[in-house]
């Protein structure tokens, strides 16, 4: 067993038009920039993207949106320092937005990975984001029913990976990635360092390899925030 | 509105910090509420939580020392205290939704006397963005709001019923404003005045408040050090 | 029943092991199904999962070398292979329920031609215990059963409808018995014979089977090495 | 902040009659034997206990049951090598059993900790363990609705603990403990070693301290399996 791919380009090559793609990260922390840029090179269209945000500046997810690859975005917070890539298209009616409260978004993704088709949450009850959702009362309190969220692919960034796909994450770059790894048909991880089997202590594994299909080693990965401070653009 | 001695944001944050107890787990909303951390009462050690999966973070790093994998929910660089922990987003919101946070402090566009909060969008225009606010107001054991007493156009922010889109229903129990500290008696749907600026009359305060201020027992003096 | 050349448990386990592919994630039920691991086909490396939170475990340790914090779902001591991982029970069953396991292999009291499985209790007496079986049969991509072809009292275990309490409905797709390999065509609710002991007649096999055995194309010879 | 208690006796002293107590462990792996024995010494009655099993032999949970402290057990597998403590009482109608499939039990506990009052699972649909539970269909497949599970107390065993309550676990002793820590009003952890703040890497924390209320250091804790091989009894 070896899930190693030689390049980001190879790892994302089969993502085709109309796919649903989860992208890890919270803002730039944990954003898999190199995988996203490889996907921009590949150029599939009509994607549905799941991410907490909607990109910042003109690299990563923002650049994907600028390339017109994204038909629909499912996220909690489509604002950033430089949100024009998304906001211009949104306000022009050229991209669809499904807005979800952040905790509901996270739990829907986990539910997709855990085989839980629906669950109840108090979040958004009585608000416009709860409109149209089934309501049920438990122990005298009203809750909304929310559905799982799954994807064809997940693109995530990890720190260490071993040939079995076991992953660890760096600092707060963990965020959505362990959940998205569970919820996608094919999970593609860029890792800062690929280690041998046994190179990650079994107790230190954060994402067990069963949730990971493909690994690409990207040493010294780019940070979205640093790219934006340098006013970078992709391509 | 131009009330003499009206508290600035630093002072409102200072007042809110006085109510945070030692060892409490606290989430501070992006922006104004973040200022509360700077006024932690000496001898108390609250543990700060941020939605993107960190417990136990400290101050911002010096300029040039930022690590952009180590940020808070406002995407600002942070540092860690000893005893910090990282976790994924599902666990982070399990902490919130599961009632493990002692206090969430948020900003407000409007708060109603029934505890309803509106703080995520003004109307139906522009790009909507909600983040973790709706989870926080439904999950934390205590939800407090920091706000100027009235909006910039002079409209009351403390109202009988929110007109802006809601963040949560019946969730806010205490409001720290530039003029007063007000509790929300959610079952009775009424504001209860706890403290006001010493020189401010009840009539003047009521005049800039959009719902009746009830009094139960003594109203304290809202006294805050000079801060800027 | 006393059929000449009837497979023993080791041989049934060997046959099941031939269908496990390289790199598949596999959960083996407690007891008889655990034997499958010993017959992993050379050159293939399945990764074994156990409900209590381990992926990538290997053989039992030598006697006296047990670490009782490192056990499998049957509470037997295990060892780890390089690349193993530990995780909590919610994550372990997320793997199961979420469809991440390629294969689950379980024992059976009865299997019906509609894919229903009964394997957790015989009736309503005694102490009931279910463990993870109901999760496994509803979650793994492929659910297979290892069993003697008939019960000790001679009653068929492959039946039209289970009479014992169900573990899951319409879940089993392949049955490895002491006499045959049988697929379950769940939508059509029928058993399809794939392999049988070479010298066993169709009539004799049908006689000890509680539901009709259909044939589609060639029936292979169930040929297994001597094992004990 | 310091959640440290000087002894197991002090840590469990306020657990009173009628409490619901979750107990970590899977069989003997992760069983907090010293906390359980301290609870036996304290002697509260009419407890509801949540554990994967029902004890083995005459120590730990089995001994609690033998002492007549447990009115009801919620578990998935009340069998063991020496199950007489539970089985004799159960067959005599002196202890109530709520049997739950193991994954449903785990997810119900996690749901209790995560503020999810109910969720849907395919597990146990069409079986006697699903009888009486609400059924709903999602995407053409039937699912059962299951409710969260919470407790007044959780007793768990960890390897390292710091003064904030951050925990790591040893090998497969992790199992139910991280979930139970989330789902209890007061979570009491016995740790093999209490380290200073910073003694656990933030990325290596398995149970963040927010889920843990009390810590007791128990170096060289007993293993249920080893006690049973020695035919130990408690008290």
Automatic annotation (TrEMBL), chains A, D:
Q: Which UniProt keywords apply?
A: Transferase
Q: Which InterPro entries does the entry mention?
A: 3-oxoacid_CoA-transf_A, CoA_trans_fam_I, CoA_transf_BS, NagB/RpiA_transferase-like
**Keyword set includes Transferase:** yes
The protein's matches in SMART domains, at most eight in alphabetical order, are given as: CoA_trans (SM00882)
Pfam families in alphabetical order: CoA_trans
NCBIfam families, per database record: pcaI_scoA_fam
* Similarity comment: Belongs to the 3-oxoacid CoA-transferase subunit A family.
What is the protein name stated in its UniProt record? 3-oxoacid CoA-transferase subunit A
Which source organism does the UniProt entry give?
Answer: Jiella sonneratiae
Automatic annotation (TrEMBL), chains B, C:
Q: Which UniProt keywords apply?
A: Transferase
Record flagged with keyword S-adenosyl-L-methionine: no
Query: Does Transferase show up as a keyword for this record?
Result: yes
Please give the Gene Ontology molecular function terms for this protein: transferase activity
Extract the NCBIfam families matched here. pcaJ_scoB_fam
Family classification: Belongs to the 3-oxoacid CoA-transferase subunit B family.
Q: What is this protein called?
A: CoA transferase subunit B
State the species of origin: Jiella sonneratiae
